[in-house]
Specification:
The protein has about 350 residues and is mostly beta strands. It is built from two helices and 30 strands.
């Protein structure tokens, strides 16, 4: 039985899928803001990040039953680390995670732009190769948040040394040696808000997905469109829908069996951040972005202010779920052909994961 983990600003809500309907099963960390959810299917382990006003960022771990949570050591920036000269680095947010089942290592992406890796003693160590990369100091900057942050960490299903990062207003970075060195991979991306839109720096990937069966294909919903690569992030191709639905938006999900299939949820521009044309629309492609189809059945088509964040849309098999900043939860059991509104009055939803 599939379950849907919904991370809100007031706790982690666990829904079970029963005959296509979501039923609330548990609430964890009630009243506390969830900043991140990560689940490893091999070990059946779940991690969640919390972002508390008084106690700061925390991380917890549980097995799949989610009955007992263990608090882990919080990452700490070394005393000598500065975001930029004169600005000491201090942990603000645990935004992403990736668990390497082969090594047993947990990677954490944070704001302000630090990548941490777990050590055998349970402590987290800052990845110095990325932190000391000249790009970070000279070219990363804050977008929707005050400082650049690592919102996505992806591994490779066949290459244990491969890691890919999505950096808010920093771009895409790849390591092919397990994090020892990093290369910027922004060729083909566009940043319309900069004086040099096609330059190498300042790009803002909102969400990235790597295809499990054909990992050279990676999809990206960017601040300035939808992009795809078929050469492992060496070059990106703009496949934004011709009507500009998807020119701005946050989430993207893909079909891990067919690298040409993807779904996005368009939004209005960065200064408005509402549903595109106040309509909640899913755009779907079956041909690698050459053509796009709008899927709207069951979704509100007028006066809709809902926004879907980058981590709040997920797909597993033909089950799709997404949650919005106005606390609405939608479900599709037919790959987006039709949708049902399952929950209202939830707190703002920032993350969602089907397990």
């Amino acid at each position: 039985m599939m379950r849907c983990l919904v991370g809100t600003t007031k706790g982690l809500c666990v829904f079970r899928n029963v005959a296509g309907k979501l039923a609330l099963e548990q609430i964890h960390f009630k009243g506390l803001p969830i900043s991140m959810i990560h689940f490893d299917r091999n070990s059946g382990t779940c991690w969640v990040g919390l972002s508390m006003k008084h106690w700061g960022a925390k991380i917890f771990r549980s097995k799949k039953d989610l009955n007992e949570w263990q608090e882990l050591t919080t990452p700490i920036y070394p005393a000598q680390c500065n975001v930029k000269p004169g600005v000491p680095a201090s942990l603000r947010l645990i935004w992403s995670a990736y668990f390497d089942a082969h090594s047993g290592k947990l990677w954490l992406g944070t704001e302000p732009g630090g990548l941490f890796e777990s050590m055998p003693d349970g402590q987290f160590e800052l990845n110095q190769a990325l932190w000391n990369n000249p790009d970070r100091v000279e070219h990363w900057f804050g977008g929707g948040r005050d400082q650049a942050g690592i919102h996505t960490i992806l591994g490779h299903p066949q290459d244990r040394q491969f890691l890919l990062l999505g950096v808010s207003c920093g771009g895409v970075y790849v390591s092919r040696d397990g994090g020892t060195s990093w290369q910027m991979k922004n060729k083909g991306l566009r940043a319309d808000y900069l004086p040099e839109p096609l330059g190498p720096y300042g790009h803002d990937p909102h969400a990235l997905e790597i295809c499990a069966t054909q990992p050279d294909t990676i999809w990206q919903q960017n601040h300035c469109g939808v992009f795809v690569t078929h050469d492992g992030a060496e070059t990106w191709k703009d496949v934004t829908p011709a009507d500009d639905y998807g020119r701005y938006g946050f989430p993207i999900v893909i079909d891990h069996q067919d690298p040409l299939r993807a779904w996005i949820i368009p939004a209005e521009s960065d200064d408005q951040r509402v549903a595109k044309d106040l309509r909640l629309v899913i755009c779907h492609t079956n041909d690698g972005g050459q053509t796009w189809i709008k899927q709207t059945r069951g979704l509100p088509q007028e006066n809709c202010f809902d926004l879907v964040f980058r981590h709040a849309f997920d797909r597993r098999e033909e089950l799709m779920c997404f949650g919005t900043t106005t606390g609405n939860l939608f479900v599709s059991n037919d790959d987006g052909e039709s949708w049902s509104h399952q929950q209202s009055f939830l707190p703002p939803i920032h993350s969602l994961l089907i397990i």
